[in-house]
Design brief:
heterodimer, A: mainly beta, seven-stranded mixed β-sheet, 11 strands, 0% helix, 52% strand, B: 108 residues, mainly beta, six-stranded mixed β-sheet, 9 strands
Chain lengths: 119, 108
Amino acid sequence: QVQLQESGPGLVKPSQSLALTCTVSGGSITSGDFYWSWVRQPPGKGLEWLGYISYIGTTHYNPSLKSRITISIDTSKNQFSLKLNSVTAADTAVYYCARETVTIYFDHWGQGALVTVSS
Amino acid sequence: SYELTQPPSVSVSPGQTARITCSGDALPKKFAYWYQQKSGRAPVLVIFEDNKRPSGIPERFSGSSSGTMATLSISAAQVDDEADYYCFSTDGRGDLRVFGRGTKLTVL
Protein backbone atom coordinates (compact mmCIF):
# COMPACT_ATOMS: atom_id res chain seq x y z
CA GLN A 1 0.00 0.00 0.00
CA VAL A 2 1.44 3.34 -1.08
CA GLN A 3 1.96 5.85 1.70
CA LEU A 4 3.04 9.48 1.57
CA GLN A 5 4.51 11.48 4.42
CA GLU A 6 5.25 15.20 4.52
CA SER A 7 8.18 16.60 6.49
CA GLY A 8 9.69 20.02 7.05
CA PRO A 9 9.68 23.06 9.32
CA GLY A 10 6.38 23.97 10.90
CA LEU A 11 7.27 27.64 11.27
CA VAL A 12 8.63 29.98 8.62
CA LYS A 13 9.31 33.69 8.87
CA PRO A 14 7.66 36.12 6.46
CA SER A 15 9.62 36.77 3.25
CA GLN A 16 11.57 33.53 3.69
CA SER A 17 11.12 30.25 1.81
CA LEU A 18 8.90 27.35 2.78
CA ALA A 19 10.34 23.92 2.02
CA LEU A 20 8.61 20.58 2.44
CA THR A 21 9.52 17.05 1.39
CA CYS A 22 7.18 14.17 0.68
CA THR A 23 8.55 10.67 1.15
CA VAL A 24 6.78 7.92 -0.79
CA SER A 25 6.81 4.38 0.55
CA GLY A 26 5.22 1.15 -0.63
CA GLY A 27 5.73 2.01 -4.30
CA SER A 28 8.18 3.60 -6.69
CA ILE A 29 8.01 7.27 -7.48
CA THR A 30 9.29 6.43 -10.97
CA SER A 31 6.04 4.84 -12.03
CA GLY A 32 5.00 6.59 -15.20
CA ASP A 33 1.34 6.34 -14.39
CA PHE A 34 1.29 9.09 -11.79
CA TYR A 35 1.97 12.70 -11.05
CA TRP A 36 3.23 13.79 -7.65
CA SER A 37 1.30 16.75 -6.35
CA TRP A 38 0.98 19.35 -3.64
CA VAL A 39 -2.32 20.67 -2.28
CA ARG A 40 -2.76 23.11 0.59
CA GLN A 41 -5.57 24.17 2.90
CA PRO A 42 -5.47 27.37 4.96
CA PRO A 43 -7.02 26.99 8.41
CA GLY A 44 -10.80 26.87 8.13
CA LYS A 45 -10.72 27.25 4.35
CA GLY A 46 -10.88 25.12 1.24
CA LEU A 47 -8.38 23.10 -0.76
CA GLU A 48 -6.02 24.66 -3.29
CA TRP A 49 -4.05 22.69 -5.89
CA LEU A 50 -0.46 23.96 -6.04
CA GLY A 51 1.18 21.86 -8.73
CA TYR A 52 2.66 18.53 -9.73
CA ILE A 53 5.79 16.88 -11.03
CA SER A 54 6.24 13.73 -13.07
CA TYR A 55 9.01 11.23 -12.41
CA ILE A 56 10.98 12.64 -15.34
CA GLY A 57 10.73 16.13 -13.90
CA THR A 58 7.93 17.65 -15.92
CA THR A 59 6.21 20.25 -13.78
CA HIS A 60 2.92 22.10 -13.89
CA TYR A 61 2.00 24.84 -11.44
CA ASN A 62 -1.02 26.80 -10.36
CA PRO A 63 -0.65 30.13 -12.21
CA SER A 64 -1.49 32.01 -9.03
CA LEU A 65 1.81 30.80 -7.56
CA LYS A 66 3.88 30.34 -10.66
CA SER A 67 6.51 32.93 -9.83
CA ARG A 68 7.11 31.60 -6.29
CA ILE A 69 6.79 27.81 -6.50
CA THR A 70 9.22 25.06 -7.39
CA ILE A 71 8.51 21.34 -7.20
CA SER A 72 11.43 18.96 -7.56
CA ILE A 73 11.92 15.21 -7.43
CA ASP A 74 14.66 12.91 -6.12
CA THR A 75 14.03 9.46 -7.52
CA SER A 76 17.00 7.97 -5.65
CA LYS A 77 15.29 8.80 -2.36
CA ASN A 78 11.71 8.24 -3.56
CA GLN A 79 10.92 11.81 -2.56
CA PHE A 80 9.55 14.97 -4.07
CA SER A 81 9.70 18.46 -2.64
CA LEU A 82 7.95 21.80 -2.55
CA LYS A 83 9.63 25.18 -2.26
CA LEU A 84 7.59 28.35 -1.96
CA ASN A 85 9.45 31.64 -1.92
CA SER A 86 8.64 35.00 -0.35
CA VAL A 87 5.98 33.64 1.96
CA THR A 88 3.43 35.73 3.80
CA ALA A 89 0.82 34.96 6.42
CA ALA A 90 -1.52 34.02 3.58
CA ASP A 91 0.67 30.98 2.94
CA THR A 92 -0.10 29.56 6.38
CA ALA A 93 -1.83 26.26 5.68
CA VAL A 94 -1.83 22.52 6.00
CA TYR A 95 0.22 21.28 3.07
CA TYR A 96 -0.64 17.86 1.64
CA CYS A 97 1.35 15.82 -0.79
CA ALA A 98 -0.70 13.51 -2.96
CA ARG A 99 -0.45 11.06 -5.83
CA GLU A 100 -2.43 12.01 -8.90
CA THR A 101 -3.46 9.33 -11.38
CA VAL A 102 -3.47 9.75 -15.14
CA THR A 103 -7.24 10.18 -14.91
CA ILE A 104 -6.63 13.28 -12.80
CA TYR A 105 -7.66 12.33 -9.34
CA PHE A 106 -5.72 12.03 -6.10
CA ASP A 107 -5.81 8.45 -4.89
CA HIS A 108 -3.30 8.69 -2.03
CA TRP A 109 -2.61 11.58 0.31
CA GLY A 110 -0.16 12.34 3.05
CA GLN A 111 -1.52 13.18 6.47
CA GLY A 112 -0.73 16.87 5.97
CA ALA A 113 1.81 19.22 7.52
CA LEU A 114 0.84 22.51 9.11
CA VAL A 115 3.15 25.35 8.15
CA THR A 116 2.71 28.65 9.94
CA VAL A 117 4.20 31.84 8.56
CA SER A 118 4.95 34.17 11.43
CA SER A 119 7.77 36.25 12.80
CA SER B 1 -8.74 31.68 -13.80
CA TYR B 2 -11.44 29.05 -13.50
CA GLU B 3 -13.94 28.50 -10.71
CA LEU B 4 -16.19 25.72 -9.53
CA THR B 5 -19.18 26.93 -7.53
CA GLN B 6 -20.67 24.94 -4.66
CA PRO B 7 -23.25 25.87 -2.02
CA PRO B 8 -21.55 26.59 1.32
CA SER B 9 -23.80 24.23 3.23
CA VAL B 10 -26.41 21.52 2.83
CA SER B 11 -28.47 20.07 5.64
CA VAL B 12 -30.60 16.92 5.64
CA SER B 13 -32.21 14.62 8.18
CA PRO B 14 -30.87 11.09 8.66
CA GLY B 15 -32.24 8.76 6.01
CA GLN B 16 -32.89 11.52 3.49
CA THR B 17 -30.99 12.08 0.26
CA ALA B 18 -28.40 14.83 0.28
CA ARG B 19 -27.56 16.51 -2.98
CA ILE B 20 -24.55 18.77 -3.43
CA THR B 21 -24.10 20.66 -6.66
CA CYS B 22 -21.03 21.98 -8.43
CA SER B 23 -21.19 24.30 -11.39
CA GLY B 24 -18.44 25.17 -13.81
CA ASP B 25 -18.24 26.30 -17.41
CA ALA B 26 -15.96 23.45 -18.47
CA LEU B 27 -17.99 20.64 -16.89
CA PRO B 28 -19.75 19.77 -20.16
CA LYS B 29 -16.39 18.52 -21.45
CA LYS B 30 -14.39 17.80 -18.29
CA PHE B 31 -15.03 15.21 -15.61
CA ALA B 32 -16.01 16.09 -12.07
CA TYR B 33 -14.53 14.43 -9.03
CA TRP B 34 -15.74 14.54 -5.44
CA TYR B 35 -13.77 14.41 -2.21
CA GLN B 36 -15.02 13.95 1.32
CA GLN B 37 -13.01 15.59 4.08
CA LYS B 38 -13.69 15.03 7.74
CA SER B 39 -12.29 17.35 10.34
CA GLY B 40 -8.51 17.15 10.65
CA ARG B 41 -8.19 14.45 8.01
CA ALA B 42 -6.91 14.28 4.48
CA PRO B 43 -9.58 14.25 1.74
CA VAL B 44 -10.94 10.95 0.47
CA LEU B 45 -12.13 10.41 -3.11
CA VAL B 46 -15.78 9.34 -3.19
CA ILE B 47 -16.63 9.83 -6.89
CA PHE B 48 -14.42 10.03 -9.97
CA GLU B 49 -15.13 10.72 -13.63
CA ASP B 50 -18.58 12.14 -12.85
CA ASN B 51 -20.23 8.96 -11.62
CA LYS B 52 -17.75 6.21 -10.78
CA ARG B 53 -17.28 5.01 -7.25
CA PRO B 54 -13.88 3.90 -5.92
CA SER B 55 -13.71 0.55 -4.19
CA GLY B 56 -14.67 0.82 -0.57
CA ILE B 57 -17.07 3.73 -1.04
CA PRO B 58 -20.66 2.82 -0.12
CA GLU B 59 -23.23 2.53 -2.89
CA ARG B 60 -25.14 5.34 -1.17
CA PHE B 61 -22.70 7.73 -2.84
CA SER B 62 -23.43 8.51 -6.48
CA GLY B 63 -22.58 11.20 -8.96
CA SER B 64 -24.06 12.69 -12.07
CA SER B 65 -23.28 15.50 -14.46
CA SER B 66 -25.39 17.41 -16.93
CA GLY B 67 -24.33 20.51 -18.79
CA THR B 68 -22.41 22.85 -16.53
CA MET B 69 -23.50 21.16 -13.31
CA ALA B 70 -22.27 18.08 -11.50
CA THR B 71 -24.12 16.62 -8.55
CA LEU B 72 -23.04 14.40 -5.68
CA SER B 73 -25.92 12.48 -4.14
CA ILE B 74 -25.82 10.66 -0.85
CA SER B 75 -28.88 8.50 -0.33
CA ALA B 76 -30.04 7.44 3.12
CA ALA B 77 -27.63 9.95 4.63
CA GLN B 78 -26.07 9.01 7.93
CA VAL B 79 -24.60 11.12 10.71
CA ASP B 80 -21.23 9.62 9.76
CA ASP B 81 -21.55 11.32 6.35
CA GLU B 82 -21.20 14.74 7.96
CA ALA B 83 -18.12 16.28 6.37
CA ASP B 84 -16.95 18.88 3.92
CA TYR B 85 -17.34 17.84 0.31
CA TYR B 86 -15.25 19.31 -2.47
CA CYS B 87 -15.76 19.03 -6.18
CA PHE B 88 -12.67 19.01 -8.36
CA SER B 89 -12.07 19.36 -12.06
CA THR B 90 -9.93 21.08 -14.64
CA ASP B 91 -10.39 24.09 -16.85
CA GLY B 92 -11.34 23.72 -20.49
CA ARG B 93 -7.78 23.12 -21.65
CA GLY B 94 -7.13 20.61 -18.92
CA ASP B 95 -4.22 22.63 -17.58
CA LEU B 96 -5.55 24.11 -14.35
CA ARG B 97 -6.76 21.82 -11.58
CA VAL B 98 -9.40 23.46 -9.43
CA PHE B 99 -11.29 22.60 -6.26
CA GLY B 100 -14.66 24.07 -5.46
CA ARG B 101 -14.84 26.00 -2.20
CA GLY B 102 -16.48 23.10 -0.45
CA THR B 103 -19.90 22.27 0.96
CA LYS B 104 -20.45 21.46 4.60
CA LEU B 105 -22.94 18.62 4.90
CA THR B 106 -24.90 18.44 8.14
CA VAL B 107 -27.01 15.39 8.91
CA LEU B 108 -29.31 15.93 11.88
